[in-house]
Amino acid sequence: MQIVVVGGGAVGLLLASLLQKDHTQIHILVHRESQARELNDKGLQQIDVLQKSHQTYIKVSQDFKEFPTDALWIIAVKYHHLAGLQSLFQSLPKSTPLLFIQNGVMHLQFAKQLHQEHIAFSSVEFGAEKLSDSSVAHRGVGKMKIALGIGNGQLFEPLLQLSKDKLPMEWAENAEQMLTRKALLNCLINPMTTILNVKNGALITNKHSFLLIEQLYKEIMTAFPEQQDQLPFEDVIALCKKTATNTSSMLADRLNGRLMEVDTIVGGILQMAQTRNHEMPILATLHSLLIAMQQGGAES
Ligand SMILES: NC(=O)C1=CN([C@@H]2O[C@H](COP(=O)(O)OP(=O)(O)OC[C@H]3O[C@@H](n4cnc5c(N)ncnc54)[C@H](OP(=O)(O)O)[C@@H]3O)[C@@H](O)[C@H]2O)C=CC1
Ligand SMILES: CC(C)(CO)C(=O)C(=O)O
Asked: What Gene3D superfamilies does the record tag this protein with (predicted)?
């Protein structure tokens, strides 16, 4: 199987390293020459959950024309990077299968305007932290769920055969439901880790943030009652525990002075609640705080 991972960030590097297996050829498309050079020279280092180091050598390039268009392309960039990949999507043939792994909900709409005929979405519940351009830490084993958006699901099924202990994979039936559930989990974790500047595990060991998570969970379930079965409170706690040592992707953005995925995660959920005529005062407050931080109101 051939896989092209687009984006050499935390998730892209971790996936490339975990998916590497005999008879599977992985390629990474990056957009900085310095990162391509470093990965090609040094290889990719992954520090696993037990702190063991693994080295892999993967073909990396800045030029997408070097990679097979009949491979499965995994789009591992942030939501706000997708617009910058328009020319790539236009150049790839309609038959290239695309798998989007973004958190949030807004990329569902983005994917609808592409000409590709086979599109799937994934929600990932592992922790990944980029340590340098050529090294990544696995900060908590978690499921990778895949659901079909449009086209032929069989094109994505070979990925499930790469499922293993450190990267369990599962097929999900409904992409929108799957992404909404994950966005709700992210609403419960990412904003508070970012505002408090703490790792995921600290949210549940501090009694004040734990209480806030409980209250936010109740607010979420009032607006999204159909998620009660799919997202019991225990799943929220379990994800904080599993990824206890991870810096959430939103906090990582904040610490690196990058744009945070506030719109597609928190904004997306607030919009959905509004269409259901539900106010979400706790989440709306977290949203305002994040926007203020983004705009420089809380620069450290
Ligand atoms: N980190 C985590 O633990 C988890 C993250 N996620 C989600 O996964 C997605 C990716 O997150 P994450 O990996 O953390 O993000 P990162 O910011 O670490 O990585 C994004 C990468 O995309 C690259 N990129 C941006 N534009 C382009 C482009 N035009 N061509 C090629 N590469 C490009 C960036 O390159 P450069 O650095 O050169 O700008 C960067 O390496 C997000 O939606 C996130 O919410 C989901 C679960 C867990
Ligand atoms: C799974 C989790 C919560 C890991 O930190 C994540 O999705 C993120 O950081 O964006």
From this structure: N-(1-d-carboxylethyl)-l-norvaline Dehydrogenase, domain 2, NAD(P)-binding Rossmann-like Domain
